[in-house]
Amino acid sequence: MNALLVSLSYHHHNTKQVADVIARVIGAEVRAPQEISPGEVSDYDLLGMGSGIYSGRHHQTLLDLAGALPPVTSRRAFLFSTSSAVMVGDADSRRFQDYVGEINAPLREKLVSKGYTIIGEFSCPGFNTNSFIRHFGGLNKGRPNAEDLARAEGFARKVLAGSTR
Ligand SMILES: Cc1cc2nc3c(=O)[nH]c(=O)nc-3n(C[C@H](O)[C@H](O)[C@H](O)COP(=O)(O)O)c2cc1C
């Protein structure tokens, strides 16, 4: 399978840890959105896009790239993210899944509008020291942790199998 992971991770490289695990399992290369021209993305059978969540959505460079992609048919994509994700329950809870659905929506909608079928969405907490939070030691210290990365690996195995749903 010819797979591409596009990932942007700058705050604490939290999402990079997730991207690296997924890339290893599915045998994909990881590239930054700024390194990619929209036209080359449709050369790949499978596209993964992920970043931290900043002001409620994926990084603008990912949204811009998704918006500039040429329309496709028969192409699959998946999303991933790390975020503050506090007070939303554990990973299997309906509340967490609803939260992930919401934060991934802007990027998902752009990809769907281009013709991509979304086969899965992964998210986990990431260490956050944005703004005043740093004065209190940050949120989600140590995340992603080994359990989060094991979940990311399980997600990637399902992606390899065709769908996580
Ligand atoms: C400028 C900024 C804005 C953020 N906004 C949000 C947000 O709206 N919701 C949220 O859950 N987390 C937010 N966070 C926390 C990040 O999503 C979290 O730390 C993430 O793991 C960062 O990923 P990275 O290390 O891959 O960049 C924000 C962090 C930064 C730096």
Total beta strand runs: 5
What is the CATH homologous superfamily assignment? Flavodoxin domain
List low-confidence stretches.
none
Biggest beta-sheet profile: 5 strands, parallel
Write down the CATH topology: Rossmann fold
Distance between the termini: 19 Å
Description:
The chain is of the alpha/beta class and 165 residues long. The protein has one domain: Flavodoxin domain (Rossmann fold, 3-Layer(aba) Sandwich), CATH 3.40.50.360. The chain has helices at 14-26, 38-41, 60-68, 94-113, 146-161, and strands at 3-8, 29-31, 46-52, 75-83, 116-125. The chain has a five-stranded parallel β-sheet, with helices on both faces. Helix 1 runs parallel beside helix 5 (146-161) and helix 3 packs across helix 4. The protein starts with a strand and ends with a helix. 39% of the residues are buried. The site of flavin mononucleotide has 20 residues, from helix 1 and strand 4.
Question: How would you summarize the topology of this molecule?
Answer:
Layout: E1 3-8, H1 14-26, E2 29-31, H2 38-41, E3 46-52, H3 60-68, E4 75-83, H4 94-113, E5 116-125, H5 146-161
Parallel strand pairs: 1-2, 1-3, 3-4, 4-5
